């Protein structure tokens, strides 16, 4: 069954105003090409969010509008972190979508409120690396024009009986970048439904959207919070390969999961390339 994303109005981008909320038979092989435009930089938009953040639903609409606008060049990951992602022992907000990686990233970048986000973990207009949603579009426009840094392909197989995902990633650099580069492989899940606080009717019912559909949710990383070292000296003639496996918890729906991987500089944490692929094959 294909996961259908909600259709969000593009016009939201132009009217955005925010205030931050303080069995194993055959392996299922999927190969994703390098992306839409073969010459421009791929972009990771990290949307730091939480189910108690009243402005976050509209921020998520903004993120998905940008993803559609820059199709196959911008990839969104929803990171549930900060106070606004904490669960309650009872009531509407008992779900816990926090992750070890998301919490560590949030703490490292000192993201204390939501909604906020990062675009390839780079500065924009001299501001902090993390920024409010009204700045995401400008930061993406500036980043997407940079030259393409690498080509990545990914093959995934999923063993239904053991619920184990195996991912093979090939990387070839296109730019003679300097320094040490790491690879992070994340697992995202779509279509999780639970309540979300909300203050804007453009995004849904107020003050709570009881059947809110969470998309692009960070569920964990396959190779550690900060990933694994890829190289200390970029070799343009070399194809780098990494192989990972990860056993899914019982409550994850494998058909709704994706693998998102990105390359970043260990020196300044800037992200240089991103790829996203379904964890399992689409049923026929």
Q: Could you list some keywords that capture this structure?
A:
284 residues, mainly beta, five-stranded antiparallel β-sheet
Account of the protein in words:
This protein has 284 residues and is mainly beta. It has a domain at 39-148 and 177-232 and 253-277: Glutaredoxin, CATH 3.40.30. Helices cover 13% and strands 34% of the residues. The chain has helices spanning 12-15, 56-69, 100-108, 136-144, and strands at residues 43-49, 74-80, 116-119, 130-131, 150-159, 164-173, 181-189, 192-197, 208-214, 217-221, 228-231, 240-247, 257-265, 271-278. The strands form 4 sheets. Strands 7, 10, 11, 13 and 14 form a 5-stranded antiparallel beta sheet that branches. A hairpin with a 4-residue loop joins strand 5 and strand 6 (164-173). It is globular and about 55 Å long. The termini are close together. The model is unreliable at 1-20 and 22-36 (pLDDT under 50).
CATH class wording of the domain at 39-148 and 177-232 and 253-277: Alpha Beta
CATH topology of the domain at 39-148 and 177-232 and 253-277: Glutaredoxin
Number of helices: 4
Instruction: State Rg.
Output: 18 Å
CATH superfamily of the domain at 39-148 and 177-232 and 253-277: Glutaredoxin
Query: What is the percent of helical residues?
Result: 10-25%
Task: Compute the number of strand runs.
Answer: 14
Q: pLDDT below 50 for ≥5 consecutive residues: which ranges?
A: 1-20, 22-36
Q: Describe the biggest sheet?
A: 5 strands, antiparallel
Measured by DSSP, the beta-strand proportion falls in: 25-35%
CATH-scheme architecture of the domain at 39-148 and 177-232 and 253-277: 3-Layer(aba) Sandwich
Mean pLDDT score, rounded? 88
Euclidean distance between termini CA atoms: 9 Å
């Amino acid at each position: 069954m294909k996961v259908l994303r909600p259709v969000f109005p593009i016009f939201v981008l132009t009217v955005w105003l925010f205030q931050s909320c303080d069995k194993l038979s055959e392996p299922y092989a999927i190969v994703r090409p390098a992306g839409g435009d073969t010459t421009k930089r791929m972009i990771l938009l990290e949307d730091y969010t939480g189910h108690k953040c009243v402005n976050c639903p509209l921020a998520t609409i903004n993120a998905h509008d940008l993803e559609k606008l820059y199709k196959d060049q911008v990839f969104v990951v929803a990171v549930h972190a900060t106070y606004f992602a904490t669960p309650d022992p009872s009531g509407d907000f008992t779900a816990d979508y926090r992750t070890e990686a998301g919490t560590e990233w949030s703490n490292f970048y000192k993201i204390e409120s939501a909604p906020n986000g990062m675009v390839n973990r780079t500065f924009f207009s001299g501001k902090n690396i993390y920024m409010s949603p009204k700045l995401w579009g400008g930061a993406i426009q500036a980043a997407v024009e940079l030259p393409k840094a690498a080509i990545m392909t990914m093959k995934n197989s999923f063993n239904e009986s053991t619920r184990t995902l195996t991912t093979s990633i090939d990387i070839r650099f296109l730019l003679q970048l300097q320094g040490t580069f790491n690879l992070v492989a994340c697992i995202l899940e779509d279509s999780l439904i639970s309540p979300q606080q909300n203050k804007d009717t453009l995004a849904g019912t107020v003050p709570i959207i009881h059947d809110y559909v969470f998309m692009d949710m960070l569920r964990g990383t396959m190779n550690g919070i900060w990933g694994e070292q890829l190289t200390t000296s970029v070799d343009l003639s070399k194809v780098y390969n990494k192989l990972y496996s990860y056993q899914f918890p019982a409550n994850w729906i494998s058909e709704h999961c994706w693998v998102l991987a990105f390359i970043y500089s260990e020196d300044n944490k800037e992200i240089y390339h991103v790829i996203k692929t379904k964890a399992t094959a689409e049923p026929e």
